[in-house]
Write a structure and sequence with these properties.
Shape of chain A: elongated
Largest sheet of chain B: 4 strands, antiparallel
Largest interface: A-B, 19 and 22 residues
Number of domains of chain B: 1
Number of helices of chain A: 7
Oligomer: heterodimer
Number of helices of chain B: 2
Number of domains of chain A: 1
Helix content of chain B: 25-40%
Distance between the termini of chain A: 54 Å
CATH topology of chain A: Ferritin
Order of helices and strands of chain B: EEEEHEEH
């Protein structure tokens, strides 16, 4: 019997389901960073706002990368429904700490898909995610560096203004 | 046509000549591409069967399923939904696209 299914699709459906979950997660991150940009704009952190606009675009780029991979492999990418975006933050420190939490959650999710793909013998998905694994190392490092800078600068006096200005160093 | 998998109410076939699949729903035979079959899988596995046992969430215990870009419409009861979930999950295992041995949720 000819294997029409395999000829039409080159990854496992379990990988496809997990990657669709990741599409949703990246879209959620993109929307969250846009909410953070809004908060920064409204609270006078204009450079940080620029940083989060860029982050938001990057996350959407990640989402599209996965979306296109699913198309290329004959899968069924799903446009995600995004709800429950938080717009309330107590401070700029809270914004960046939430960002790091988000990035760690994304990293864990990607590692989980890599492990599952390896378990399934889905080499294409595993290799595709190599880029994301390294990208997450970079993303987490950026936010950790910003949090270190905040710690060193301090939030007293002109500290907040200095923090906002220095965030510009991480906008490429 | 070759039988890929058969459940209590439904049968999934593969047609090598037409390079497509057919699902026999009993009263209707529906032709599907793999993309349409993936879409059916998503719709069926997304149905919350728990809601069928909650009078507030699913009062009548039925599901309306639209397939192949709204070309076909089916009204399924709880047993039929469970059987279709089984067909889809095991059908993809038989086709070599899934490793799962039990129905999974998406």
């Amino acid at each position: 019997m000819k294997d029409i299914a395999r000829q039409s699709m080159s990854i496992k459906v379990e990988s496809m389901d997990l990657l669709n979950g990741q599409i949703k997660m990246e879209a959620h991150a993109s929307a969250t960073y846009l909410a953070m940009a809004s908060w920064c704009e409204q609270n006078g952190f204009f450079t940080s706002a620029k940083f989060f606009y860029k982050q938001s675009e990057e996350e959407r780029g990640h989402m599209m990368k996965i979306f296109e991979f699913l198309i290329d492999t004959g899968g069924n990418p799903l446009s995600p429904e995004i709800t429950g975006i938080n717009h309330d933050y107590s401070s700029i420190v809270d914004v960046f700490e939430s960002t790091l939490e988000h990035e760690v959650a994304v990293t864990k999710s990607i590692h989980n898909i890599v492990r599952k793909a390896r378990e399934l013998g889905d080499i294409a998905t595993e290799r595709f995610l190599d880029w994301f694994v390294l990208e997450q190392v970079e993303e987490e490092n950026t936010i950790r560096d910003i949090l270190d800078m905040i710690e060193v600068t301090g939030t007293e006096g002109v500290g907040l203004q200095m923090i906002d200005n220095q965030v510009g160093n991480w906008i490429e | 046509m070759n039988v890929v998998h058969q459940s209590t109410y439904y049968t999934l076939y593969q047609s090598v000549k037409e390079r497509c699949f057919y699902v026999d729903f009993g009263q209707k035979l529906v032709r599907m591409s793999l993309c349409q079959l993936l879409s059916l899988r998503h719709k069926v596995l997304s149905i919350s069967i728990e809601d069928h046992f909650d009078g507030d969430l699913n009062k009548h215990g039925f599901e309306v399923l639209m397939l192949c870009n709204k070309e076909h419409l089916f009204v399924l009861n709880t047993l039929e939904v469970l059987d279709l979930k089984h067909l889809v999950a095991q059908g993809f295992v038989a086709m070599g696209l899934s490793e799962e041995r039990e129905a999974i949720t998406v």
